[in-house]
Inverse folding.
């Protein structure tokens, strides 16, 4: 099955296979044999009319040599590799804007979308185009004098990261099926129905308290190099999923640095809080709820107020990076008495948890799984859930729901 854009005829298999080999032998894929084998297999299956048969178990057996008894619940190899393939495809097409075809692996699916692309100027209405909103965070007017251009360059997060988020978000919105799913729309409806622009308030780590202010005489180059103005790819992935969903729903949004937000910025408007311990608003607004974050030096965990002695939903940040096997995250939606508006929380103890939470909160399948445990009469109430997230050699793996609360 082909997903064709801009009224171009579907590419014949020979042209698609030729393009596929160009992708696989590009720098984006040349360093990963497993990613090559994964993409080659799923594309060929689609071209040979077996796209509907592509399942996680099929890929595990046919591509990675797993046994027929492969248990996807305990082995996240295929999901981890699919995430890597998506990132490599985004990197490839970012470097090849004139490519005649586009192969995408939609989030939540292993069936690739093959598009014949006709490059055209893109026209979008101001109320649904997030790019000016993102750029205004750091970009002065084009006709400003050179000195003003430099002095007003105050990015909240790295501009390159913001542009990447916008690009990935648009790709996400395009690649998703038109039907979003009632579960996702029901969970997001308080934010979508609110007339105000959604604020995505993202936390970021600070290396020291002094990172909040620029030292006197700091050059533009050094300003951009400061650690406090970087965002991890896992956080960017979470923001991209959220931004893509909002873009698909034609809901305007802005991305801000949580450290720069005052309470007045959050008051009365729909807010998505991204990251846990690095986001002061997530820490504050979750305090009255059952699940919230606690940090004790390098030891951080999700506290269960109904069982405050438990500490097992934790990350020890002093451990070796590549030895981490689990992370935990909170996903939730509630009306905050502090802000007077609807809040969605997408927050991991560390960044892998945030990435997994970002996928969960826009997935109709995962939200449906969660809402099956909601009590009768709960509809449109508040909820929180704790996710356990597998981490494989630093990469985010499968997530499972380990606790939930509805009120």
């Amino acid at each position: 099955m082909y997903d064709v854009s801009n009224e171009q005829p579907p590419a014949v298999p020979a042209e698609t296979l030729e393009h596929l080999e160009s992708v696989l032998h590009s720098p984006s894929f040349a360093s990963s044999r497993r990613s090559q084998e994964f993409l080659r297999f799923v594309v060929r299956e689609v071209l040979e009319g077996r796209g509907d048969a592509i399942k996680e178990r099929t890929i595990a057996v046919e591509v990675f040599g797993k046994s027929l008894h492969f248990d996807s619940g305990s082995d996240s190899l295929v999901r981890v590799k699919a995430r890597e393939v998506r990132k490599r495809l985004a990197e490839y097409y970012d470097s090849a804007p004139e490519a005649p075809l586009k192969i995408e692996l939609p989030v939540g699916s292993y069936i690739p979308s093959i598009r014949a692309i006709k490059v055209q100027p893109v026209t979008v209405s101001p109320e649904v185009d997030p790019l000016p909103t993102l750029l205004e965070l750091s970009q002065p007017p084009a006709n400003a004098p050179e000195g003003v251009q430099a002095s007003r360059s105050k990015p909240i997060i790295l501009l390159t990261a913001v542009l990447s988020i916008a690009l990935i978000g648009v790709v996400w919105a395009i690649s998703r099926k038109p039907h979003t799913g009632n579960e996702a729309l029901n969970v997001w409806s308080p934010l979508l129905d609110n007339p105000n622009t959604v604020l995505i308030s993202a936390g970021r780590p600070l290396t020291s308290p002094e990172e909040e202010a620029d030292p006197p005489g700091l050059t533009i180059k050094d300003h951009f190099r400061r650690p406090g103005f970087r965002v991890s790819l896992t956080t960017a992935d979470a923001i991209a999923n959220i931004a893509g969903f909002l873009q698909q729903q034609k809901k305007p949004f802005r991305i801000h640095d949580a450290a720069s937000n005052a309470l007045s910025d959050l008051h009365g408007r729909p807010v998505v809080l991204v990251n846990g311990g690095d986001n002061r608003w997530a820490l504050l607004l979750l305090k009255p709820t059952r699940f919230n974050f606690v940090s004790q030096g390098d030891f951080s965990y999700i506290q269960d107020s109904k069982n405050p002695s438990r500490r097992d939903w934790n990350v020890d940040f002093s451990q070796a990076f590549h030895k981490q096997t689990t992370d935990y995250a909170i996903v939730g939606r509630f009306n905050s008495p502090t802000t007077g508006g609807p809040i969605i929380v997408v927050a991991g103890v560390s960044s892998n948890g945030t990435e997994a939470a970002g996928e969960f909160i826009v997935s109709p399948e995962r939200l449906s799984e969660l809402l099956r445990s909601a009590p009768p009469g709960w509809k449109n109430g508040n909820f929180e859930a704790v996710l356990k997230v597998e981490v494989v050699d630093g990469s985010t793996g499968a997530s499972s729901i380990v606790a939930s609360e509805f009120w």
